[in-house]
Amino acid sequence: FTAVAQTDLKEPLKVLGITEMFEPSKANFAKITRSENLHVSHILQKAKIEVSEDGTKASAATTAILIARSSPPWFIVDRPFLFFIRHNPTGAVLFMGQINKP
């Protein structure tokens, strides 16, 4: 069997008193970036466990979605495309992907 769960941790963190990072006017991520005023939109956690005759595999990942106070540019995706996420200081490609059917 396989079990997958995804949770948005925003509300549980707010209940614990962790609130400022979610508020655009109060969030301070100056040590992350100097060019943008950021705040956290959501913190998502996804966990997966697979149990079979061969054994058990488990994995989990947590990600924070940061948004700039100014609106990001909008564009229309109406054809297949490639994307790359690059580390600017080194030029290293961290992630790349291909979308065939947008």
TrEMBL record:
InterPro entries: Serpin_CS (IPR023795), Serpin_dom (IPR023796), Serpin_fam (IPR000215), Serpin_sf (IPR036186), Serpin_sf_1 (IPR042178). GO terms for molecular function: serine-type endopeptidase inhibitor activity. Residues 3-102 form the Serpin domain. It holds the Pfam family Serpin. Transmembrane segments: none annotated. GO terms for cellular component: extracellular space. This is Glia-derived nexin-like protein. It comes from Equus caballus.
